[in-house]
Amino acid sequence: MMELKHNRSIIILSLITFTFVIVALVSAFYTSKAGEIKKEQLKLIQANIILNQSIQKKKEEFAQIQDKIEDIEALIGKNNRNTNSNIEKLVDNMTINTKKLIVDSIPSGYPSEAQRVTSPFGYRIHPIHKTKRFHHGIDFGGKLGTPIVATADGIIEFSDFDKGYGNLVVIHHNFGFKTAYGHMQSNLKVKKGDFVKKGEVLGYLGNTGISTGPHLHYEVKYIKNVLDPKNFLTFKIDNFESLLYTENRIAWDSLTRAIMNLYGRVSLSKLL
């Protein structure tokens, strides 16, 4: 009887030991699997980090390529100059009224009372990206909320938020001109499709988009060629010839004929 009890004890102890061994083996197995899964997760996280870094690098490379393409386009525009050898004769044949019509027909004057130039037109070291890039306009520093106005009559082509330019307005003018006004506050006064008159308020000087401080970014384009806005800021009747001589990417003789023909037809239609 005592031997039977002893054997039972041995069997029970053996079963308990066996159970503990099985549990230990199963636990070790799952611990090992969990470790492997953890390692795989870490590998995936590292791979994801490397992939995101690669994507960011590609984005930066693409942005640089895009900038270079735009720079080339700008340079092509610069080199694609028109010959205006008869400017002097052209101006001599103009009346005061003719000059006034031309000044009023194309972008002229400052787009704002904020007239402190913080970054001119041309190549510069970008204040944020710290790389040499072509600046397609002029930056004017000023107080937040300073009114921004249209520099010529036209149709609003774009009036919305742009990642780079912030709150941006683009105006399509007559005779192939466009102007752009960037980094404005969110309370834009115009929308796409609106007709605006020269001097009409478009919005207010802000600090939106890629910007290091309150300023207006102003651009002037002519048939997709970027022009130096500086030449148009002081374009008035009393210094009429200066722009014609300075900006020789515009065929002024052809342009002035087009302007005069248009207004001539308008005047004739009024008489009829």
List the helices and strands and how they pair.
Blueprint: H1 2-79, H2 87-92, H3 96-105, E1 116-119, E2 122-125, E3 132-135, E4 138-141, E5 147-149, E6 154-162, E7 166-172, E8 177-184, E9 195-196, E10 201-204, E11 215-222, E12 225-227, H4 230-233, H5 240-246, H6 252-271
Antiparallel strand pairs: 1-4, 2-3, 4-11, 5-10, 6-7, 6-9, 7-8, 8-11, 11-12
Helix pairs in contact: 3-6
Give a verbal description of the structure.
The chain is an alpha+beta fold and 272 residues long. The chain folds into 2 domains: 1-79; 90-271, Glucose Permease (Domain IIA). The protein is 46% helix and 22% strand. Strands 1, 4, 6, 7, 8, 9, 11 and 12 form an 8-stranded antiparallel beta sheet that branches. A two-stranded antiparallel ribbon has the order 2-3. Strands 5-10 form a two-stranded antiparallel sheet. β2 (122-125) and β3 (132-135) form a beta hairpin. Mean pLDDT is 81; it is low at 267-272.
In short:
The chain is of the alpha+beta class and 272 residues long. The chain has six helices and twelve strands.
Say which CATH homologous superfamily of the largest domain is assigned: Glucose Permease (Domain IIA)
* Structural Rg: 35 Å
Q: How many discrete structural domains?
A: 2
Please give the CATH class of the largest domain: Mainly Beta
- How are helices and strands ordered from N to C? HHHEEEEEEEEEEEEHHH
According to CATH, what is the topology of the largest domain?
Glucose Permease (Domain IIA)
Helix count equals 6
Report how far the terminal alpha carbons are from each other.
137 Å
Query: Share of helix among residues?
Result: 40-55%
Described by the principal axes of the CA atoms, the overall outline is: rod-shaped
Unreliable stretches (pLDDT < 50, length at least 5) are 267-272
Proportion of beta-strand residues: 15-25%
Overall number of strands = 12
Structural class: alpha+beta
| CATH architecture verdict of the largest domain | Distorted Sandwich
Mean pLDDT: 81
Major sheet characteristics? 8 strands, antiparallel
